[in-house]
Amino acid sequence: MRPRSVFGTSLAVVAALGLTACGGGGDAGASKTVRVTLANHVWTENIKQALPEFEKQTGLKVEVTQLGEDQLSDQYNVKLNAGSSDIDVMMYRPLQEGKLFARNTYLADLAAQVASNKNWDFGDFQPGPVKATTHEGKPVGIPIITEQEVLYYRKDLLDKAGLSAPPKTLDELKAAAAKIKAADPGVAGFVARTGKSPAVTQFSSFLYSFGGDFVDGSGKAAVNSEAAKQAYAFYGGLIKDSGPANVSTDMGWPEAMAIFTQGKAAFYTEANSLYKNATDPAKSKISDQVGFAPFPAGPAGSKPYNIPSWALGINSGSENTDNAWKFIEWATGKEQTLAQQKSGVPGARTSVWANPEGTSTFPKDLVEAISASTEAGVGHDRPLVVKVAEAREIVGQPLVDAITGKDAAAAADTANATFQKFLDDEAK
């Protein structure tokens, strides 16, 4: 079979291939060595320390290959494209590569596995992350690390402004941000990502809370819906009117976080996974004044993203799928998920958030914000496409235009036409 490029596959061809079933009748002559490819991450370091326990319990040996994100993508590009069988378990990014991997049948269908052990309890996983690791109704990955968008805020600045509680709605956020900046022009009322690609993920919660999405129910581009136009205008206007003076339009999270932690902004919407940057005295001048709240509600309610940033899947080319599943079952079980969360890695299981032991290392108000986010959270924070980076550039342009005072509605119309062409090309 001629190799297929991971980043240039024709979806019209691969969509017809379906998913590859995992396991079933067992692996003839299966190896006792499970080959696991993992990303550089705190989760990986934790699991490596616990491996002797798994190996003792099962009699299996785990061989770990650990790589940076770019190296990981390169490795998958070469090996999965070639149909290699020397990867059994793969750590992957569901929202970055998940659709591509599933459609190319690189990920095995795990439907039988997730239903096989009641004690492992697949129903314990949060709906948003599960949806993001499902393809055509079948699970192809198990979420291991989650993120939600929450509101970071300065307690002291709220007190100074006479605000008794953080804003519960986006309208309240806009009013509070304007009030704080008016009182002290040297302090921004609000800060967030502004670069057209990095801002897309954090803008997504605004989009959903206004009632929009990147595509509609029929899969057509929807970034010029009335809800989307309102969301673009709101996000851009909030930064333009209440953001930092002379704000740049190329900020990612490090730049936005720096403004907040240097005491130069009152409100900041961002992923909860970055919270220690704000609460660590070694990194933040305002560490003792940081509070957290649920993402404020828009016209459609509070609908922040609740996503799996990483998941585990089984290479459909593996000849050791039964033992690969034993590793995943253990690594994503309740015990290991609880241990990971206690070390600061947010888990995808509902039970760990309901367990006081699982939330003991997180700020109390952050736990409450996360709990609220998981109830109505949306399982994606970017367009669910194969060429994610290109799509983000397209749908992020109206954000930049809105921040710089241009017509957000006109920019959304232009972006929608470009995005629809992009979707049509991907579907060929």
From TrEMBL:
UniProt-listed PROSITE patterns: PROKAR_LIPOPROTEIN
Domain of life, source organism: Bacteria
A Pfam family per the record: SBP_bac_1
InterPro entries, A to Z: Bact_solute-bd_prot1, SBP
SUPFAM superfamilies: Periplasmic binding protein-like II (SSF53850)
Protein name: ABC transporter substrate-binding protein
